[in-house]
Amino acid sequence: MCGIFGVYGSKDAALLTHLGLYALQHRGEESAGIIAYDSKKIRQCQGMGLVNDLFDQKSLKSLRGNVALGHVRYSTTGSSSIENIQPFLAKHKGGHIAIAHNGNLTNALKLRREMEKEGSIFQTTMDSEIIVHLLARSSGRDCKKTTLLATLQRLEGAYSLVMMVDGMLIGARDPYGFRPLCIGRLGQAYVLASETCALDLIHAKYIRDIEPGEIVFIDKDGLRRANLPKKDKRAFCIFEHIYFARPDSSVFEKNVYMIRKQLGRQLAKEAPADCDIVMPIPDSGNSAALGFAEESKIPFEVGMIRNHYVGRTFIQPSQHIRDFKVKVKLNPIREVLKGKRVLIVEDSIVRGTTSRSRVKTLREAGAKEIHMRVSCPPIISPCYYGIDFPTTKELIAPKKTIRQIRDFIGLNSLKYLSLDGMLKAIGSPKREFCTACFSGVYPTKPPKRLSKDILEKEN
């Protein structure tokens, strides 16, 4: 899920990147890093934890240069450790390469073993390091376009990349376009970002999305582009609209808030309920709950208050931490809930443990009945493209019927949005989005073995 950001052509490149990472903090809370370059020296600052805790005035002032890139991390390949902090920096005979990666390479294990047999030595367990090795092997000072095209054509799976090669800023998306990446302008400077909310924060103007399979090269001569061979379809990650992205962002050229409201409206049409109030689970369920309430004419209420000093529970690296954060993250408003038939709108159910804990809390607060409506279909299949459920063991839906899930969570009723209804609400053809986690139909060939587990075991 990671957030990536880059700036070219501003004397405040590192400061702007710092702000950009603030806006993208929701995409990863494990670690953060910034690299800057002033045409003479490359400098970096990074660490485990949140952006607010890692960078101070002194460290940011030291990151001099007119080009910078940054990364906030949520691990799906490679452990949550210091060695795996991005941006990843490598120095080689031709200069330096820095890379910030969002996505998962499905052929990471194959490529890594091939390179290790040929003498490559890896310092991390990230699939992102593979890209650096491929570039460094064949790149001279004129590598920029030819070598990068050749390298990216060897990759399979999902990647949005912001790179710096000898002072040039480069942005790229895989040919399916799984993960978002956009271009903005701030005066004469160019900005690359995972989401448009990061552009808004620094008052950069959104220009356009980087197209699937497109590579942009930004230097003193401006912006140039190249393209990888096209695929016959796109595979935008639909979970960006359901959960990942901030509601004030436009992702895949559509506003996330408006999409989520439409998902809620469609859910109310497909799965109505006789209840006293509609409430969201803050914050990702807010928009869909509002859409459901407006469509169903049931009053919208805020039944739980979120502690905003606690991060997102789904993107925590372990179940133990998720369980702890569920307890301290949300507190019920008893006066709103007592004696009421409550309808909860959830954005998704992955493992079911978080929802179970929340429903228990609502019953203890006095709710008479608790019904749940989910603004996406049941998640039945693993994701290999950057969401942290790479096997079915993390999922509740493949192992239980909807009735069993209802009973496990402790609900009076449970219904999900249909796959067709979800696509209708988003307003795009099915061929535009990856829906593999709901359908089991993958846009690329799934890996036979999980590179994350094997790489961790081998290292």
* Radius of gyration, taken over Cα atoms and rounded to an integer in Å: 22 Å
- CATH superfamily descriptor of the largest domain: Aminohydrolase, N-terminal nucleophile (Ntn) domain
CATH architecture assignment name of the largest domain: 4-Layer Sandwich
Count of alpha and pi helical runs: 17
Query: What would the CATH topology of the largest domain be?
Result: Glutamine Phosphoribosylpyrophosphate, subunit 1, domain 1
Largest sheet entry: 7 strands, antiparallel
Question: How many strand elements?
Answer: 23
State the CATH class of the largest domain.
Alpha Beta
Give the proportion of residues in helices.
25-40%
The low-confidence parts are 453-459
In spatial order, strands of the major sheet run 3-2-4-1-10-9-11
Mean pLDDT: 90
Structural class: alpha+beta
Taking the alpha carbons of the first and last residues, their distance comes to: 23 Å
Total domains = 2
Strand content: 15-25%
The rough form would be described as: globular
Notes on the protein architecture:
This protein is α+β, with helices and mostly antiparallel strands and 459 residues long. The protein is built from 17 helices and 23 strands. It has helices spanning 13-23, 51-54, 57-62, 108-117, 128-138, 146-152, 196-201, 239-244, 256-270, 286-296, 319-329, 334-337, 353-364, 402-409, 419-426, 436-439, 451-458, and strands at residues 3-8, 31-37, 42-48, 67-73, 88-92, 95-102, 160-165, 168-173, 182-186, 189-193, 205-209, 214-219, 222-227, 236-237, 250-251, 254-255, 277-280, 304-306, 330-332, 341-346, 369-374, 413-416, 433-434. Strands 3-2-4-1-10-9-11 form a 7-stranded antiparallel beta sheet. Strand 7 (160-165) and strand 8 form a beta hairpin.
